Amino acid sequence: MFIRHNLLNIKSELPQYVTLVAVSKTKSVADIQRAYDAEQRDFGENKVQEMTQKYEALPKDIRWHMIGHLQKNKIKYLASYVHLIHGVDSLELLVEIDKQAKKNHRIINCLLQVYIAQEETKFGLTAEEVLELLSSDAFKKLQNIKIVGLMGMASFTDNEIQIQNEFQSLHTFFQHLKTELPETIHLKLETLSMGMSSDYLIALQNGSTMIRVGSAIFGSRNYLV
Ligand SMILES: *Cc1c(COP(=O)(O)O)cnc(C)c1O
Q1: What is the DSSP letter of 147?
Q2: Rg of the chain over all Cα atoms, to the nearest angstrom
Q3: Which of 26, 35, 42, 98 has a CA 20 to 30 Å removed from the CA of 139?
Q4: Angle between helices 160-180 and 127-134 (to 10 degrees)
Q5: What pLDDT, in 10s, does the model give residues 91-133?
Q6: Would the pTM of this model clear 0.70, i.e. be above it?
Q7: What is the position in ligand 1's atom list of the atom closest to the CA of 196?
Q8: Looking at residue 52, what DSSP letter applies?
Q9: β-strand partners of 20
């Protein structure tokens, strides 16, 4: 029961334009089914194999979000069904996604991951690299991908001011890109994916349109089991 309860609580806090992605990594098919039965349709996973097994076992109207760092050689396994890839951080990756999307006769929606944290370990592009990528000829040649927005993760810290500053900087950059770059068939910036269990309320106050929430819905993850 607690999954439904948590979902309803979180949803009651969300403006209508915000999408809640339920992050179900390490959680069972039964837990995902419970969330599905409570009307949840967007789920996020960070490992291709785990996501594909769950895709095969669960209802086909689920929208699967790849939120982890994606390896090039794994794209072929999710290309037929993935709804949105959040963590794209290189042109090389985008070229491979385009190739696999073409093989599957579809367009794959992607978010560029932007580096906003003050930590060394997080993946992502700098603002300059995003601009460079989106204005490159190589990007303009791609036909089976669509960049629909940006994704970012704040620093792992208790300092709410710092988290707020990081989200705010990503929102400002998102707005800047929207005004600077014309929409094309493969660039339509409408999604800003930021906010997790510990910081989604701060993210919502700073322009987030998509939050990725795991433990606040499913309970904490136990990586040892
Ligand atoms: C695990 C994960 C989340 C969700 O984390 P919670 O703290 O459980 O809400 C969100 N985004 C990414 C990229 C993740 O890997």
Answers
A1: E
A2: 17
A3: 42
A4: 20
A5: 999 999 999 999 999 999 999 999 998 877 668 999 999 999 9
A6: yes
A7: 9
A8: H
A9: 211
